[in-house]
Amino acid sequence: MIEAVRSAMDVSMARDDDVVVFGEDVGYFGGVFRCTQGLQAKYGKTRCFDTPISESGIVGTAIGMAAYGLKPCVEIQFADYMYPAYDQITQEAARIRYRSNGDFTCPIVLRMPTGGGIFGGQTHSQSPEALFTHVCGLKVVVPSNPYDAKGLLIAAIEDPDPVMFLEPKRLYNGPFDGHHERPVTPWSKHELGEVPEGHYSIPIGKADVRRAGSAVTVIAYGTMVHVALAAAEDTGIDAEVIDLRSLLPLDLDTIVQSVGKTGRCVVVHEATLTSGFGGEIASLVQEHCFYHLEAPVVRVAGWDTPYPHAQEWDYFPGPGRVGRALAEVMEA
């Protein structure tokens, strides 16, 4: 996935001189996860450069560049660090089109590694996507595999409005399914690890059915897609697994079609339960699929606590917890 993200930026920079990449350590060092490695050497220090440790400054600069006509793709080193820039993101970037009556747009992409599973503790494991889905004017994308990561990032860079691009860091090197006791499987052994050369894009706002089924619908995104697939395999339950890919805009049609068929729904995400994005999905399912439901919608999520370093795998919504939720809705 690291190579896919880098390829998306490389392709976009080659096609459009207005695309610029910057952030903390993204230039000479190539990023803390090496997602921008080699871009400065290829495109020069004016198109890929390092910034001071100032998230508010990074985003504020990107907004000014975007209003001027450039297309910044910037990195927030960890999603946990975006809070100093939250004002710039929500009060400026998200509102430029509205405030200017369409005279200005803000074509920026904010890339940020998100989620846990790497023993990063409370300040390197957060999943803040719900804080962005509440903001009118933003788009929120969370890929679950390298193929989608490249296609969605290219689409985000080409989008005229601000896109929050959250990259699950536990998926950078392989399709982690929550079985932490097992060896890591590399993307080279997964069908979605095959990423085409050159330009292609995936429409923002279109979900993908990763596993067809008829007994229960599991709605997930990011790392939790692979956890949901593992839970379906472990339990033997005929679950249909939907990878949202985009939280805002949301592909409600795919959700409604699936739940209308299965009559049951489990929503899985890594962020804390209270006010997590799963609550929005559960409400939409209830509103649009009430007469099809055979059981209450069940959510599986992180605890309502800071991410605990010492209890990583208890907090992490693994296949065991998802499997129990699947059994619960099937028995209801």
Automatic annotation (TrEMBL):
Residues 1-174 form the Transketolase-like pyrimidine-binding domain. Its EC number is 1.2.4.4. Its cofactor is thiamine diphosphate. GO terms for biological process: branched-chain amino acid catabolic process; response to nutrient. It is an enzyme of class 1 (oxidoreductase). It comes from the Bacteria. Keywords: Oxidoreductase, Plasmid. InterPro entries: THDP-binding (IPR029061), Transketo_C/PFOR_II (IPR009014), Transketolase-like_Pyr-bd (IPR005475), Transketolase_C (IPR033248). One of its GO terms (molecular function) is branched-chain 2-oxo acid dehydrogenase activity. This is 3-methyl-2-oxobutanoate dehydrogenase (2-methylpropanoyl-transferring).
